[in-house]
Structure prediction request, 290 residues.
Amino acid sequence: MWITCFKSTGARSVLLFWGMFLAAGVAPAISFLSASAIPAIASKIPTATTALPDKLNTLEDSLADETDVKHYSFTAVRGQDVWIHAKQQKGSPVTLEYNRNGTWVAVPWGAPLTMSDLQPNQEIQVRISKTSSTPYVPGSTYKIEFGSAPYYADSRVVGDASELPLYWANTQAYKVLNWSVRLADSTGHPLEGATATLILNKGAGETNTPLMTDSTGSAVQGIELGSCHGRLKSAPFWTSSGKYYYQWEVEYNLGYWLIQIQGKEASGVGGHNVPNVSFAHICYQRMLHN
Prediction:
């Protein structure tokens, strides 16, 4: 029983109330909590876990306050490798941990963790909490990747200069470079939600074009190359159309392309032994003789 109002009751009434309990040999227990104890108690309250779908999930969220803890779980349905990547945080630092046999182990920020040798339907759990040694900053956010680990399956990179002989590079294009990619998990199952990036050098600096795979594990895009001024000139060459022959020369810039999976080096096309594929951006084609 609780006393909720003492408004007009005097000390005599209060003593009479306690006397009733003392006469019966019992008395209600009253506990007083200090303000400093509340966060510790709140952290022990069970928190709902968000179960994630069978893909590579990208999570962007924030903590409600300094006691908030976010829990996520992912089930490796096929026993596939699982990817945990503490990718980005803004504002107050947070800690990402995964549950290893009942013990929470921290995942370093910026370094992806791949968990292998899992059993089919094995559940992996992670949690996000405020780093204890730092103050909480309202509005702070975090971004993590959690789900099936991505692996390269196949790709195709084709330019719109297919009528020209491959004299200058393995891939040649005038205005458009079309590319597609397929990604899978460690069992070969198509992987949704993973990112492949085409890194293209048209003769100067690199440009990055990322694509995220759909439910079939595929992604496709055409890249507009724009105009250019060729710094290199080809030797004259011949093409034919039926009984007609034409002599040409072209001006072009020489560069390269490669594909990376989820930002990992040597993960797609291009690696330590063969770093990239040669690319020629055709700027101008001139007929010399017909």
Remarks:
- DSSP finds two helices and 20 strands in the chain.
- The chain has two domains: 45-148, 151-289.
